[in-house]
Amino acid sequence: MEKTATLIKPQAMIFDMDGTLFQTETLLLPAYHKLFDILREEGHHEGETPAEELILGCLGMLLEDIWKKVIPDASPAAHNRANELLLQLELEGLSNEAAVLYPEVKETLEELHRRGVRLFVASNGLEDYVKGIAQARGLMPLFEGVYSAGEHGTATKVDLVRLLLDQHDIKDAWMVGDRSSDVEAGKENGQTVIGCRYAGFGEDQELKGSDVVIHSFSQLLKLHDQAE
């Protein structure tokens, strides 16, 4: 754990989903390979499936921006079809027990909820995907709100978190996430940022500006214990 600030006990904690609560690659990669098999069959893509590193490096981005990086030369129709297929295949994949949360996520969230911390999700993903994970893995009853860019039409995570804070009258929150967009969303809204460095998808500078960087999800409980 890397700590650079004295923390205040928050009213709420706001969590990113992919790479923070959910081990995205356990669901994403099987769906990704099936998706390109279908795109080839339908004539939307030729050649090999782009490297897994490309899609993993895009986690946390808006879906429309992901395909611009993964298949930049593809047509808008191919991008739209990829959107449809990825959601369909990932929702189907949630029935597979191999698609998992990070260790101790559920237990830690349950304890935070028991302590009276208000819990939320803020994700740049699609509504059905983000809520589907929370439902399938038994997390939904713990959250006061599950916010997604797909549902609210926000252009950035800064905007999404601002909307969440305003709608729930939250003044003091910890933004918990693994990408620079999470750091920005917390800081631009005047909140504490807890960076998560256990997913391994981001660059070394990804979490620059975080108040604390944790290396396992359960360290949140120790941080909450120590906060003033």
TrEMBL record:
Gene Ontology CC annotations of this record: cytosol
Claim: Endoplasmic reticulum is one of the keywords in the record: no
GO molecular function, one term: phosphoglycolate phosphatase activity
Record-linked Pfam families: HAD_2
Gene3D superfamilies assigned: HAD superfamily/HAD-like, Putative phosphatase, domain 2
Signal peptide: none
PANTHER family in the record: PHOSPHOGLYCOLATE PHOSPHATASE
Protein name (Swiss-Prot/TrEMBL): HAD family hydrolase
Organism: Paenibacillus lautus (Bacillus lautus)
